[in-house]
Amino acid sequence: MKPGVLVKYKDFLPVTPETPLFSLGEGDTPLVRCSRLEQEIGCGELYLKLEGCNPTGSFKDRGMVVAIAKALEAGSQTIMCASTGNTSASAAAYAAHCGLSAIIIVPKGNIALGKLTQAIVYEAKIVAINGNFDQALSIVRSLTEKHPVTLVNSVNPHRIEGQKTAAFEIIDVLGNAPDYLFIPVGNAGNITAYWQGFVEYCQAGRASRKPSLMGFQAEGAAPIVRGRVIKKPQTVASAIRIGNPASWQQAVTARDESGGVIDMVSDEEIMAAHRLMATKEGIFGEPASAAPLAGLIKLSQQGMDFSTKQVVCVVTGTGLKDTDVVLKSAQPFLELPADLATVEQALGWG
Ligand code: F0G
């Protein structure tokens, strides 16, 4: 049995004797060496961290297990979040596991169907607003201030605490921090969490260096890159369709302290990387999860030399949550009668 994040990393987490310890099996996700992409890009060592292998299919589970444990410890009965889909799926699952009620607010029409299905099956109370994520988060912040409900968005510091364990795992597996960590940036909680994780592990003597953090936003939803709030963010990567990230300042700090960058990639670059990840390595991430690889390819094409570097890209969520985006542009495939000779002939063996 996997110990889960709370038990495995309890010495680094706000776990007290009163904190309930449970797990849906989050954490300990694969770090996969991608030699075909290394060749394609000209990268020394490239690893993809498969966060889609978490129980609800995204990295959110690492932070949610801590946030829910602390909510239980505090005697809370209801949790609430705004979400582009993954946070709500995770919140609803962990709430169900612990017998709490979950209320989620999502932007109507802009959440991948797999994620909505998750919230439905776990029987969260779902509110779809005619607005975007930023507006949903603003409503949730006001409501959780007024009512006895625990907010479990990443502005809840326990979420960040849990999510930092992904940085620990990378160091535990590689033996030290990589040169670069590429990561998508939406509400900017995860880049904040990774930086905290790398810093803490260094302080604890578990690593002798820290990576440069390379955050990537989508071109139509790139407030940090452009230095201003984006009122109507747009991107195919619905998970990071965010115009006013809650952890904006923390992301800028992570970028600057790590000597990294926060840059942007177009939807075309995201979808090209999405396809490359699948066809070259057999890894199916959701569109937002392809932004880091798209960023690595972009910087490499701009002349940055990764040929002697160790690089980790975080694949933040599984592609099975967002199949629409693939099926919409899929090439037609063969449809034939159930007849041996016909199939044989169509495959060119006739
Ligand atoms: N990748 C995926 C798959 C996500 O779902 C998110 C955020 C991000 C990257 C960006 O992470 O917000 O910490 O910068 N999803 C949130 C949600 C907003 O509601 O599920 P971030």
Write the layout of secondary structure elements.
Blueprint: H1 5-8, E1 31-33, H2 35-41, E2 43-50, H3 60-73, E3 78-82, H4 86-98, E4 101-107, H5 113-121, E5 125-129, H6 133-146, E6 150-151, H7 157-163, H8 165-174, E7 180-184, H9 189-203, E8 212-218, H10 223-226, H11 248-258, E9 261-265, H12 267-281, H13 287-301, E10 306-315, H14 324-327, H15 340-349
Parallel strand pairs: 2-10, 3-4, 3-6, 4-5, 7-8, 7-10, 8-9
Antiparallel strand pairs: 1-2
Describe what you observe in this structure.
- This protein has helices spanning 5-8, 35-41, 60-73, 86-98, 113-121, 133-146, 157-163, 165-174, 189-203, 223-226, 248-258, 267-281, 287-301, 324-327, 340-349; strands at residues 31-33, 43-50, 78-82, 101-107, 125-129, 150-151, 180-184, 212-218, 261-265, 306-315.
- The protein is globular.
- 53% of the residues are buried.
- The protein is an alpha/beta fold and 350 residues long.
- 43% of the residues lie in helices and 16% in strands.
- The termini are far apart.
- The strands form 2 sheets. A 6-stranded mixed beta sheet has the order 1-2-10-7-8-9, with helices on both faces. Strands 5-4-3-6 form a 4-stranded parallel beta sheet.
- Helix 4 (86-98) packs parallel to helix 5 (113-121), helix 7 (157-163) crosses helix 9 and helix 8 (165-174) packs across helix 9 (189-203).
- It is built from 15 helices and 10 strands.
- The longest helix has 15 residues, at 189-203.
- Helix 9 links the parallel strand 7 and strand 8.
- Bound molecules: ligand F0G.
- Ligand F0G binds next to helix 4, helix 9 and helix 13.
